[in-house]
Structures are given as C-alpha cells and as structure tokens.
C-alpha cells in the first residue's frame, strides 16, 4: 500500500511543482452587481425625453449609473475611485464590464466594442431665448467639450484600444465618428500632455446633419481582454475616465475655463486615519 501512495504522490508532484501564482484584475464590478440585485433600473425609452441646451454633466451625482435625465444607457460606471486628480468629484469610467458588472459576453483578445454612454435626445434645432424658441445657427458657435484620462489607478488601455466620440444624424439615421484617441498608460499620457485630464473641444458645424431635434452623441470605448497566454489581463481592464461634459452655443476653441465651485475629491474622515470609532470611546467612563 505504501508503494502505491508513493507512486501517486510522485505522479502529481510535477503539477504542483510547476504551478505559478498570477495577479489578475477583478472580473466583476461588485458595486454594479450588488446595485442590480437591490433595485431594478428605471428603463426609459430614448424617444421619451428631449433635452435643450445647455447640456452639462460633471458626474457628481451619488449613484453608480449615469443620470437618466441626461443619458439613455447605463454602461459607464460613475465613481470617484478610479481616476487620478479628477476635474470635479465623480467621473464616468469606461472598461470591459457591462451594466451588470460582469465581463462582456463578446469580450475577446482583439479590440471589441465595450461601454457606451449615449445622450438622451437633444434639441439642436432650437434654443430658448427668454421664453421663446429660436433656431440654432452655425454662427451660434456650438461646441461639445469634455475631459478624459486613460488608466487612472486602474489598467492601461493598449495602443489598439480606443475611446471614441460619435454624433448621430437624424437625417440619415447614422452615427458619425468625430473624435477618437488611442490607448496608452497614465504615465505616458502625463508625459505627452503634461496634465492629468486632457480637455477636448469639438465644434459642431454641419447644420444639415446635426441641427435637428433628435440629435444625440455618445462615447464608446474599444477594449481587449487577455488570452490563454496572458491570463492576468482577463478582467476589468482598459479603463478610461470621462469628466465634465458640456455642450452649448456661444463657445470657441479657447473656452476652457468653467465657472463652477465644486469638490474634486471625497471629504476626509474626521477620525484622521480611521473611518469609524466605537461609541464607548466617546463615553467619559467607558465600561
């Protein structure tokens, strides 16, 4: 019997001898997963609401999903944990996880479409002037601006990954790519642009395609997960962080300063290095 035990141990020993530990990114977003369990998201039809200019969102709402009054979907993750030095508290993070906090079922090592952040319908055909609606014209100088940052404290998007901005044209029912950037690490981003978040200004000048009441814009990220040779990449990877989206008339390429009093981070704890203190510590004669 002992000889058989020895043969068995020697037979399985190589499997343990050549095992290797790896560090992987999280394969789920537990905040989203628990949120989905707790409540059912109040779905809205994209055709049920129109927004007028100006359109502004700094993602400071205390929720993990985008503001339904402004956005038509819920794939982006609203948080203040992943970015480095955000413009204001709260960003929209794009990654390889869906709205339920799990890796997309179509995820693969090649570049695939992951998160969307799509605006509700916008009235680009007219704007309020006092109590009256007046047509929007090309001379009104319409710009969409936003800040973005790759990686933050998360995983850097690879060079073949990207963040894309698209405009929807109601005249031909098509989405047009109007801006994009390739993936890179946070440090490479800092070295290139000398800033934590880069401001992008996109003019909207094609009145035939876009100056209509059913205009929309959306941000999309392309991600890629690991393969069998790179198991540590098969998780929550390729993160981008979006902040302070603003669409309005009367702007120009130098309109880079926003008059806004806002927090850029969470309040620190009153207990310095602690998050909570037992009640008995406050008593004069603790038992």
Supply database-style keywords:
six-stranded antiparallel beta sheet; globular; 4 helices; alpha+beta; 287 residues
Walkthrough of the structure:
The protein has 287 residues and is α+β, with helices and mostly antiparallel strands. Helices cover 13% and strands 28% of the residues. The chain contains 4 helices and 14 strands. It has helices spanning 2-17, 30-38, 186-193, 207-210, and strands at residues 50-51, 55-57, 77-79, 91-94, 112-118, 121-122, 126-129, 132-135, 142-150, 162-169, 174-182, 198-204, 216-223, 240-248. Strands 2, 3, 4, 9, 12 and 14 form a 6-stranded antiparallel β-sheet that branches. A 4-stranded antiparallel β-sheet has the order 5-13-10-11, with no helix packed on it. A hairpin with a 4-residue loop joins β10 (162-169) and β11 (174-182). The longest helix has 16 residues, at 2-17. The model is unreliable at 12-25 and 35-47 (pLDDT under 50).
Radius of gyration: 24 Å
Whole-number average pLDDT? 82
Question: Please, how many helices?
Answer: 4
- The level of helicity is 10-25%
Short description:
This protein has 287 residues and is α+β, with helices and mostly antiparallel strands. It is 13% helix and 28% strand.
């Amino acid at each position: 019997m002992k000889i058989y035990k020895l043969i068995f141990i020697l037979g399985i020993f190589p499997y343990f001898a050549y095992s290797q530990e790896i560090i992987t990114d999280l394969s789920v977003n537990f905040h989203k997963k628990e949120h989905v369990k707790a409540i059912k998201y109040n779905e809205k039809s994209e055709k049920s609401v129109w927004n007028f200019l100006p359109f502004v969102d700094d993602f400071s709402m205390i929720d993990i999903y985008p503001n339904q009054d402004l956005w038509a979907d819920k794939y982006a993750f609203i948080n203040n944990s992943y970015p480095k030095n955000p413009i204001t508290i709260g960003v929209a993070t794009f990654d390889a996880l869906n709205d339920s906090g799990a890796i997309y079922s179509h995820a693969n090592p090649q570049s695939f479409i992951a998160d969307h952040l799509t605006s509700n319908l916008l009235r680009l055909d007219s704007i309020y002037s006092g109590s009256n609606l007046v047509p929007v014209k090309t001379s009104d100088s319409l710009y969409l601006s936003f800040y973005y940052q790759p990686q933050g404290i998360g995983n850097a998007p690879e060079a073949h990954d990207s963040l894309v901005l698209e405009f929807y044209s109601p005249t031909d029912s098509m989405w047009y790519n109007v801006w994009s950037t390739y993936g890179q690490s946070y440090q490479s981003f800092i070295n290139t642009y000398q800033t934590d978040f880069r401001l992008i200004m996109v003019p909207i000048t094609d009145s035939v395609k876009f100056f209509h009441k059913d205009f929309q814009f959306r941000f999309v990220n392309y991600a890629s997960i690991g393969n069998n040779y790179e198991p540590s990449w098969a998780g929550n990877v390729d993160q981008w962080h979006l902040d302070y989206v603003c669409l309005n008339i009367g702007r120009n390429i130098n309109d880079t300063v926003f008059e806004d009093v806002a927090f850029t981070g969470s309040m620190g704890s009153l207990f310095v290095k602690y998050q909570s203190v037992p009640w008995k510590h406050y008593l004069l004669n603790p038992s």
